[in-house]
Fold Beta-glucanase (GH16 family).
Amino acid sequence: MMTAARLLIFILLNVLFLSYGLGKQGKPVKSTIVKVDNGFTIMRNGQPYFIKGAGGTSNLEKLKAYGGNSIRTWTPQQADEILNKAQTLGLTVTLGLDVKTERHGFDYNNPAAVAKQKEYVRAIILKYKDHPALLTWGIGNELNLHYSNPKVWDAVNSIAEMIHELDPNHLVTTMLAGVNQKEINYIKTRCPALDLIAVQVYGGLAAVPEQLKKTGWNKPYIVTEWGPTGHWEGLQTPWGAPIEETSHEKAKVYKSRYEAAIGQDKNCLGSYVFLWGQKQERTPTWYGLFTEQGEENEVVDVMQYLWSAQWPRNRAPQLDSLLLNHRHAKDFIYLESGKSYPIEAFVHDPDGDKLQIRWELLKESTDLKEGGDREERPQGLSGFIQNNAVDRTLLTAPPLEGAYRLFVYANDGNNKVATANIPFFVKSNSGKANEITYHFSPTPIWADEFNYSGLPDKTKWSYDVGSLYNGWGNNEQQYYMEASASNSIVENGVLKIMARKGNKKDKPYTSARLTSKNKGDFKYGRFEARAKLPRGIGTWPAIWMLPTDMKYGNWPKSGEIDILEHVGYDQDMVHISVHTQAYNHSINTQKTSKKKLSGVSEEFHSYRVDWTPTYIKGFIDGQEIFHFVNQNRSFKEWPFDQKFHWLLNLAVGGNWGGKEGVDDTIFPATFEIDYVRVYGLLD
C-alpha cells in the first residue's frame, strides 16, 4: 500500500505530467492581424485581443489579478514551465528567440554560423508551436543596437519565413531598440515575412506614434519594452552617475506616456511594460516594478488602473522627494569624508498606513553593461546611517573618496513600497593629489580667433578627408572635404563649417572636419571654444580632442575628450564626455554629462574643459557640469598623459546623430565657431 506521502508525490507527478502533456499536445490558438477602422487589431481564436502585458516571468498570479493578459520572455529557457503556467492562468506568451547580436560578437557574414543559428531556432519552433498559450514569436532582442551589418535583417527574414512554414497559427516580430529611419527602411525592404514590428522605448514613448508616421511605417506594431526614463536619457552628475526618478515620479510618467501612445494609437496592438520583477541595471530599483524583497511600487498600481480601469483598494506609498544635506540629486552633491549630513525622505501613504523606513548605502555601480545585459549589484555598506528606521536621520560620508548612492524604501506593511535614491560624491579631506588647485596661463598659448577671411589658417588646421572606416566608425553619411570654401570658410569673425546636400563618392552630404594634429598638440591645459550650433534632425556637431601619437593603441585605448557634442533630434541638449578603454560608449560605460541649454542654435555659448594630471572638468558658460577623476589605475582608465589635438566637425546622420533619421529640408546646415583657445597649465 502507498503511504500518504507517496500518494501525494504520485498525484503531483501526474499533475505535472498532464500539465506538460497539455503544453506539448494541446491545440494551438490561431492569432492573426486584421485591418479595422483607422488601425489594426489582433484576432485570437476569432476574438479581438489587445495585449496588456509585462516583461518577465515572476509574479504572474498578480499580473492576472491586476488585469494583465500576456507576458514576454527574452529567451526560450524554461519555456515549458512558463507556457504551462501561463495557460493555467489564462495568459498568453510572446516567446523570445535568443538570436545572437553583432555587439556580442556574432558574425552575420558567416553563412555557416547563420545557418546553425537558424536550425537552433527551428528546433524551438517545432517544440512549442502548438502550445495553446503561445501568442507571438519574438526574433532576437535589439539586434539594431551597436550593429553595422545589414545582413542581420536577411537572417531575421529567413527565420520569419521558416516560422510561417512550420507554424501558420502565430505572429512573428522582431524587437527594435528605438524608432530609427534606417531600421524601418531595412525592415520594409528586407523583412517582408514579419507580421509586425516591436519597438522598445523609454523616455520617448509618447512620441512613438508620430515617429513611426515620419518613418513611413503605417502598419501594426507593439511595444515590447517601455518604462521609466532610461539611465542614458536623463540628467547625469558631473562624475557620470545617472539620476533616477523616484517611484512616485515613475508612476506619473508611466501613466502619461502610456495614455499618450499605447492607449491612443490604433496601429498599436498593445505592449509589455518593463519590468514585471526586479533586476540590477545601474541600480537595484531603476526598472523593476518590484523590489528585491518582492514589494510592489506605485507603478504596479498604475498598471492595474491602465489594464482594468480600477485603482487597487490599497495604494502604494508616495515619495515626493529625498534630500541629502538639504539638497536634491540634481544639485550634484559633494560631501567630505567623515562628516555627517542630514538625510530626509518626504513620503506619505494615501491610505494612512503606518510606514516602515529602511535606508541602504551602496557604492556607485561600476559593472555597467548595455542592452539589459546582466550586471552585478554593488555590495551594501553598513554603519554610516545613524538610524535606519526613521525618515529623517544622519549619514556619515564614507572615508574613501568616490561615488556612492543612498537608497530609501518606505513600506506600508501591506507589501507596497515607495523608493528613491540619490547619488553623491565623497571628496577626501586628506590632502591627496586630487585636491590640488591648478592654475592656467592668463593668456592663451595657442588660439585661433578667426579674425580673418577665407579658408581656415593652414598653419593651424589640416583636414580629415573622405568617409573612412565605414563613416568614421559611426555610419556617418557625410564626405569630409579638404580646403573647400563651400564647407569651411572664415568670415565675419567666425569659422563656418557647413554640411550640404550633394553626392560625393556615394555619400549624400558634404561637410568638413578640421584638425590641429601636428600643428596644435597639447598635454594638459584649459581648452575653450565659443560656438553656435546648427539646428535640424540629423546634424551632429562636435568640438573634441584625440591623441596625436596614439600612445596606447587605436580608439578607445588612447582616449578621447569631447568638449561639446550635440545631436539635432535632441535640440538644446549639449554633452561633455571622455572615452577610454574602460569607459566608452561602445560598451555603454562612457563618462559623460549633459545639460539642457536653451538657444544653442540662436546664440553663442562657451564650452570648455580643464585637463590636468588628476582630473578633467567640463564647463558650459563657466558652470561645471562634468568631473572625471584620475583613479591612478592604468591607461585603460586614464590614457590622458600624452599630447592631444583639436577636432572641429559637423557630421550628418550616423549611429547617434542619425538615430531619428535626417531631415533633408534643413540643408545647408552651419556650425559657427567664434574662437578656440588653449591656456597652458602652470607649474
The radius of gyration is 28 Å. The first strand starts at residue 31 and ends at 36. Residues 1-25, 431-435 have pLDDT under 50 and may be disordered.
